[in-house]
Amino acid sequence: MRVVPTWDGSDRAAGSHQQVGYSVGQTVAVAIVSPVRGTVVERLVAAGCVAAADEAEKLIGAAPDDNTLEAWIRRREQGEPLAWIIGTMQFCGHTVRVDHGVYVPRPQSEELACRAAALLPSEGVAVDLCTGSGAIAVHLRADVPTATVIGVDVGMREVACARRNGVSVLAGDLDQPLRPKAFDVVTAVAPYVPTGALRLLPVDVQRYEPRLALDGGDDGLHLIRRIVVAAGRLLRPGGWLLIEVGSDQDQALSPVFAACGYYPATAWFDEDGDLRGLAAQAKRSGC
Ligand SMILES: C[S@@+](CC[C@H](N)C(=O)[O-])C[C@H]1O[C@@H](n2cnc3c(N)ncnc32)[C@H](O)[C@@H]1O
Fold first, then answer.
1. Which CATH number fits domain 101-281: 3.40.50.150, 3.90.660.10, 3.40.630.10, 3.30.300.20?
2. Which residue from 1, 66, 203, 250 has the fewest beta carbons nearer than 10 Å?
C-alpha cells in the first residue's frame, strides 16, 4: 500500500487498499516457502495492500518476536504506513528512518534526488527545503560526500527525524534560517496538493499523514510559489532549484520563475507522462 499523493488522478502508484490478483503460481510458491509468510501475505492482500508479498517480507524480517509481528500486521491492516511501523524505508538505495507522524518519502521523489545530486558540485552547498525525514538530503550527502548539505523543516518532529538520519537540519520557515546567495542547489518536495483535492488522496494518506505535509492551498502552489521566490534569494547565479510538482502546475509557475530571475524551467515526467518536477537555473540572485 504505497501512499502517494496522486490527487491529479494518476493513482495507479498509490495502490491504497486496492485488491490485486495473485497468480496460482505465486500462491503455491508462498505456501511452500513459509506458511507464516503465506498467512501474512493473505492478511495484507485482504486488507487491500498492493505490495503484500514485499511488505510481508519486511514485517517478518523486522519484527523481533511473534507478538510484535501480530501487532504490526494489525496496524498495517488498518492502513498505517509500513515505514512508521518498522521505522525505516528505502530511498535511492539508502535506509532512511521515518518516525511516526513524519511524511513517508515517495519513490517518485527519487528522480528529483538523483537529478539534484548530478547538479551539485563536489565542493558545493545544497539545501533541502521541507526536508521531512531528510531522505533527499541523505541521498545528496551520500552521492556527493564532499559537498555541504543541510535541511530545513518547520516541524520539530521532522527536524528530529532528519537529524537521526544524519542530516544537519535547521528548524524554520523555508529560507528564514539561511544565508542568501550561499547555495548551488536548492531542492524541495513541499506540499503541493490543492486543498480541494486532498479528499481524492488514498484514504490511508488522509487518515495518517500530516496535513502540513500535503496541503498546498487552493491551487496547491501556496508554498511552492514561496519556495521559488526563496530559492531565488538563496541561489548563487548559475545555481539550480529542483522542485516536485504535479498536474499542470508548471504553467502557473512560469511567470514566477521569470520574475525571480531564472532561466525557463525544465520539466520531467514519469513513465505515464505525468509531470513530476521542475528544474530551473538561476541567472542572477534575487526576486
Ligand atoms: C511533502 S513533505 C516532504 C518531505 C520530504 N521532502 C520528502 O520528500 O520526504 C513536506 C514537508 O514540508 C514541511 N513544511 C511544510 N511547510 C513548511 C514551511 N513553511 N517551511 C519548512 N518546511 C515546511 C512539512 O513539515 C513536511 O515535512
1. 3.40.50.150
2. 66
